[in-house]
Amino acid sequence: MASSGANPIGDTRDDDARHYRRPNWFTNTFLNRPVALVTRAGLSLWGSRVLEVRGRTSGETRRLPVNLLTLEGRQYLVSARGHSQWVRNVRAADGELALVVGRRRVRYRAAELAGDEKIPVLRAYLKKWKAEVGVFFDGVGPESADEELGRIAPRHPVFILAAA
Predict the structure, then answer these.
(1) Closest C-alpha among 76, 97, 70 to residue 86
(2) How far is CA 148 from CA 23, 26, 30, 122, 144, in A?
(3) Spatial CA neighbour of 100 closest among 75, 72, 66
(4) Selection from 77, 74, 56, 55 nearest residue 66 by Cα
(5) Residue 7 has what pLDDT?
(6) Domains detected in the chain
(7) Which among 37, 58, 57 has a CA at the least distance from the CA of 48?
(8) Is 89:95 a contact under the CB 8 Å cutoff?
(9) pLDDT at 43
(10) For residue 4, what pLDDT is reported?
(11) In the predicted structure, residue 96 carries a pLDDT above the cut 60
């Protein structure tokens, strides 16, 4: 998959920018925090990384666990919950971010994919993590037709990563 069609950061003309499912207290307390702690300690759970990105308002580094997807030799971040705070921060930071496992920090430049470019990435993401995130995809799964994946694609930002 070529990244030549990737949108500049912040170009959301294809996306419903209001779609966001905020994590609840249970998710933050019993899922995100423990996964982030284990990942920062050096153990990646199912591809987990700790995303570090500059906050768009505070300028402070924001950290949270994400799933890093590798597909055909390229790396991607997908926002299962929609246009989340981390997505907005990555856009505001012009795609500059770092992914951390243990003491290893890798800096990247993210470019947002548009339209049909997202379909194979979303399919692979759902194939790998449907049990964890499938509820956020409105009944669409890895076996769904391209048209169904295309229908939900605007609600789920996808970034292709390049080493910075």
Answers:
(1) 97
(2) 25, 30, 32, 11, 6
(3) 66
(4) 77
(5) 47
(6) 25-163 (2.30.110.10)
(7) 37
(8) no
(9) 76
(10) 43
(11) yes
State how far the Cα of 28 lies from the Cα of 37, in Å rounded to an integer.
12
- The answer to whether the CB of 119 falls within 8 A of the CB of 146 is yes
Do 32 and 94 form a contact (C-beta atoms < 8 A)?
A: no
For the whole model, what pTM was predicted?
Answer: 0.81
3-state secondary structure the chain: CCCCCCECCCCCCCCCCCCECCCCHHHHHHHHHHHHHHHHCCCCCCCEEEEEEECCCCCCEEEEEEEEEEECCEEEEECCCECCHHHHHHHHCCCEEEEEECCEEEEEEEEECCHHHHHHHHHHHHHHHHHHHHHHHCCCCCCCCHHHHHHHHHHCCEEEEEEC
With beta carbons less than 8 A apart as the criterion, state whether 128 and 24 touch: no
C-alpha to C-alpha distance for 124 and 121, rounded to whole angstroms: 5
- The mean per-residue pLDDT over the stretch 97-120 comes to 97
Q: Residues 6 or more apart from 125 whose CB is under 8 A from it?
A: 67, 69, 76, 78, 80, 133
Q: What's the chain's length in residues? A: 164
Backbone angles phi, psi at 5, to 5 degrees: -90, 5
